[in-house]
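Moderator note: this is an archived Q&A kept for reference. The question asked for a predicted structure of one protein chain; the sequence and the answer are reproduced below.
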Amino acid sequence: MKKYLYAAALAATLASCSGWLDLKPYDGVVEDDYWKTKEDVHSMVIGCYSSLLNKALVSNMIYWGELRADLVTDGPSADAGIKNIIRGEISPENGIVKWDEFYNTINQCNKIIEKSELVRELDQTFTESLYRQYVAEVTAIRSLMYFYLVRSFQDVPLVLTASNSDAQDYYPAKAKGSDILDTLVSHLVAAIPRLPRSYGAIDKTKGRFTDLAAKTLLADIYLWQGSYESCNSLCVEVIGSGQFSLIPVGRESVEVRNAADEVVDTAYYANMADVELWFDQLYVTGNSVESIFELQFPKVHESLNDPFFAMYNSSSSRPVLAANDAILDGVLFPVYEYDLDVRDIRRNTYQQGYAWKFVGAGLSGTRRTERSFPHWIIYRFPDVMLMRAEALTQLAIQSGNRQDWLEEAYGLVQQVRERANAVEGAGNKMSYPINGKTLEKLILEERAREFVFEGKRWYDVLRHARRDNYAGENREYLLNMAINSAPPEKQASLQVKYLDSWFHYWPIYVGAVEINRNLTQNEFYLQ
């Protein structure tokens, strides 16, 4: 077997704020001459984190989570691949469904898991605890990659051994998505106790898998599986750790009076200085107090430029996504019923058709003219709060609308809403006793407001639709979204397609099926 060159796993030296990503180039290093010391293993672990910065990988995190949903639409520079997906015309020939970079990262993780144990025999300073930590880190990275693949394709190849050669006879068949998730759960349960709470520097702690970041990922998997008690328990641990909090935004209350000078409501105005800090800390500076895990894009490295500035910036020649103002204005973000300029601060994250959180130089500043190296947030504190609210709500529904759980869930939602100075619309007010299905819908909408453009919307809606095997009216979540997302002439046909559950997942790229004789195409796309 030919010797394996590991150049692809390692980036050139990165001079950036993310100093822990600094690596020496190892182009041309032969594998047999490399795995000798704990420093070699450390470099490869950091190389796995660097692989997450791949443009194609991050772009697909966004495309797979947003294109089929209703909060973005095609901008003036969108290519045919983007336009076709938004129209509900999804084909195995569309390059957006390629999964190559996810499996490249998975293979790097597998390589480290296999080789690091051998290094322990060669380097006596490579301690058992450090070895276990490194394996746990790449296990978490691999689990994140597979979670994206299962949510996007359902059944995919489960590869837990490294591929060492292009000449290797390597044609894995698909495994059931449910079995893959069970495997991820068992792997993460074993990995979490081996992960540290902190790596010292803030960019390392936010940019590498800590025990709390891995618990958040596991809670997300549990939520997708419908394991609500397990999801709730992990969310309680993360929330109770004291390591994260919402970036505070002060509010001032004002009495609203009618023509007869009677008090009819209390309006709230967010402190704009606090709002500016909230926007800067989350979407410009990064690594905020509410960040749990985010990809640390370096300031100086052309091959690792973030893709989302150009993606959301319509002055660019690259494919573009635009804010779907028709749904965001007045529907997702209701207008305050009285004639006052009261608004949800998250309404400022899209402006003039732009996803402002990724193209704005500041909340009230001008649009950026060049990328300014923001990070990509995978998980932050409101995610855990709303995951717990969703898990409690489902447990309450299963228990006949148990009110104490519903009230606790609603309290978590209200914390997120109050920080955002959310406007109370007709669909946002809870009456008592709380109805579980009504709260379920509010939580889904609140996730849309909180994580708009952040690559979560499609997965959130699909999770609600497929719950309990599409029981009751759950599929309506998808059918209604078709009305919001597709052009009018495509809405009816898209709704018909959504009646087939296999259409809820991507086709396997035609090139992958042609190369791998053991791969079968997803069922809908065989019609």
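Archived answer notes: The radius of gyration is 23 Å.
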